Amino acid sequence: MTYENLLLEIENGTAIVTINRPKAMNALNERTLLELQNAFSGFAEDDAIQVIIITGSGEKAFVAGADIAAMQSLTVLEARQFAKLGHQVMRHIEACPKPVIAAINGFALGGGCELALGCDIRVAAENARFGQPEVNLGVIPGFGGTQRLTRLIGKGRAMELIFSGSMIDAAEAYRIGLANKVVPHDQLLAVTKKMASTISNNGPLAVRLSKEAIHNGLELDLERANQYEAELFGLCFATADQKEGMQAFLEKRQAEFTGK
Ligand code: DAK
């Protein structure tokens, strides 16, 4: 697939995906969603990629939402289809076996906030603004916002953000657990890449199994989730990475993981 709305770079095992529709504040139209879906299918299968970063092009926006101009005249069935595609893409990102970090360089509104919520970690620039303004447009969040935001920051805060449609700044997003970290705008990519590289230096299979344990475990009760964790912990002992990691520790040297 040729990408019209995404820029892709791969640097030291990190794929950097830049959503590139700056004139529309990087709003998500159908084409951009399909491109994201396609790109993430590739990342999942590419052994050279350990971590993925998603960011937006330009100075102002990460993603200012689903594309309102494209949505305005949708029929009921088309709107349903559009929402389904958005759900599939967010799920695809969430289920990607490798960690995904959102580097939020400005507005993350509506579908943009939902895209950030589909990522595993959110690093925000100081100028980032978050919100679910859909009710201002007469709709509700349509790409999982009512669910993922609530699970991440809790029911009361999610309700306030969604009912009011108000924006919050990066500091407030950090305070309520929506952003993991806030950094100066000009350091956003450097800090996010450093985080990606710290993750990449760890046992890749262990990182992927941790992601699986966290995501799938959250859908289970604690007893079953702990059993599930124990199974995945056991599985680590079938890997060369576990042997290398523990041996390297005992030999007081840096581990050289192979992801096998
Ligand atoms: N879609 C399309 N174009 C957008 C856009 C968006 N979400 N956001 C901004 N733009 C475009 C503007 O129309 C403008 O285009 P031109 O007039 O230059 O052609 C350009 O980007 C620059 O925007 P502004 O001139 O407005 O720039 P400002 O700095 O003054 O303001 C802003 C920036 C981000 C605060 C403002 O543009 C804004 O409020 N944008 C809309 C934010 C928003 O409401 N986002 C939520 C979108 S709704 C569903 C499926 C999905 C969803 C819901 C239901 N189903 C099918 C059930 C999800 C919905 C959403 O995400």
Number of domains: 2
> Which consecutive residue ranges, at least 5 long each, have pLDDT under 50?
none
- Approximate shape: globular
Number of helices: 11
Please describe the biggest sheet, giving its number of strands, its sense, and whether it closes into a barrel: 6 strands, mixed
Supply Rg.
Answer: 19 Å
The CATH superfamily name of the largest domain is: 2-enoyl-CoA Hydratase, Chain A, domain 1
* Secondary-structure class: alpha/beta
Average pLDDT confidence is 97
One letter per element, helices H and strands E, the order comes to EEHEEHHEEHEEHHEHEHHHH
Give every kind of bound small molecule, once each: 4-(N,N-dimethylamino)cinnamoyl-COA
Task: Characterise this structure.
With 260 residues, this protein is α/β, with parallel strands linked by helices. It folds into two domains: 6-200, 2-enoyl-CoA Hydratase, Chain A, domain 1 (Alpha-Beta Complex); 204-250, Lyase 2-enoyl-coa Hydratase, Chain  A, domain 2, CATH 1.10.12.10. 48% of the residues lie in helices and 17% in strands. The protein has eleven helices and ten strands. The strands form two sheets. The protein has a six-stranded mixed β-sheet, sandwiched between helices. α4 (111-118) crosses α5. The longest helix has 19 residues, at 76-94. The structure holds 4-(N,N-dimethylamino)cinnamoyl-COA (DAK). Residues 24-25, 27, 64-69, 79, 82-83, 86, 107, 109-111, 133-134, 137, 139, 142-143 line the site of 4-(N,N-dimethylamino)cinnamoyl-COA.
